[in-house]
Amino acid sequence: MTASPAPGPDRMADLVEVIQRLSQARTVETVQDIVRRAARRLTDADGATFVLCDGDQCHYIDEDAIGPLWKGQRFPLETCVSGWAMLNRRPAIIEDVFADDRVPLAAYQPTFVKSLVMVPIRTIDPLGAIGTFWATRRKPTDEEVRLLQALADTTAVALENVRLIDGLEGLIKLRTAELEEANKQLVAANAELMAAHRQADRVFAAYAKVLPGTVLDGKYRLDEELGSGGFGVVFRGRHMILECPIAVKVFRPVAGNDSSRELQRFLREGATAARLNHPNAVRVLDSGVSSGGVAFLAMELLRGRSLAKELAAVGPPSLRRAAAIGATVADVLAAAHRQGIVHRDIKPDNVFLHSDADGQEVVKVVDFGIAKFFTGPHGNDQLTRTGEYLGTPRFVAPERIHGTETDDGRSDVYSLGALLYELVCGASPWTKDQERQIAAGLARDPQPQPMRQFRRNVPPELERLVQQALAWDATKRPVAEDLAAALKAQAPTLDDTPVRPPNSEPRDADSTSLLPAVRWPG
To answer: Which of 42, 82, 122, 176 is within CB 3.0–4.6 Å of 129 for a Cys-Cys bond?
Structure first.
């Protein structure tokens, strides 16, 4: 019999995150998906099952296991372990399925299961049960059972909230303590929202007055406009105290971007970038709201153009330069992920080819406007609505579209894989039909188009690396640090011959493919 390790702080943090996700679930399918994955993860189990009470039967509605169990089957309450847990309203802990008279041996003998624990979903009038299984004899710790029961209790609340259980008799009243806690949270959230709205009103009123020549708080003078994006307008500026050129990004309220939520996202860009000290990440010097009500970010002034404009103007670079650019971006992402920051919008528009004072090209990663903290005190991101994802669709990782996985650094690696593909091939990794299916959440492990279909001399090693970054299963992608190392190692061995589009006009950088889908020479 193997000993069961005691759950550490990581498991408790995992449970807290699962509870938050369950509180936002709006369909029974979403609850099932969250619970079966979480149950197996919280107890280091080889399988997990989600059971609902259907009259006098147990309906094994969902599972996540190393081998087939009983998904979709129904059994009488009196004949199965899940029924025992529901009837007795307490956990069933079975260290050896072949030595416990609660176990129907005929059902378990064909399976991998040797030990299990089953807990009821709600102890008052149980709705169902959650179970985890092991392929060896194993006694779960008290902490593991408590974690599983806490997950089941939260699942009961989630199921009541979404009202998607057929045949459920009535609704359980929320406990007084839960109501009081929810009320406290609501009051605090309303107070925060009202404060943000008051600040937003000042910002929106002041924006009309922001013109070249304006000086913010006596420090930053706005000169000519350099460009604009979804969150703001960027001006060439001057630091009046240090007497040096800078760039100043000013929040731009427009239709669809004129709420306190968007203002908070804009201001968070400064806080995010300030945490990241990397020579290839744009440097933010200051941020805040001026005394006149103007939300701004003071940044280093970049000279050059975005990678999107570079690709639209001259086509894909040499393979060596493509790998070098990708390695630099991956290195910035690795540094960000170590700080608990996921960028969430890696694309050619947010990679800038800066020309420094010596005329040397420096790759810069910009625009942390929708970045998210996934560890530490900022881990609870409240700036994205349920079912909402931000970013450019063809660069958004599938787990963010589906909302079924932790939105951590692996989603950035996927986005960088899509960027690398377009950097090498001048085309999207996906066909138009694939992109429609991906955007609709209907795609199931699609395979990217072969890179050598667009560029004949792409070596197999580089194509495999890009395919790994684009893996549909996030756990199969390399972390950013490993991707950076692999690209750095490959770059010196790659062809350094520049490529020019053969008799083609450049396309707009925001189109599905950066350039016409042609076969590149070489």
So the answer is: 82
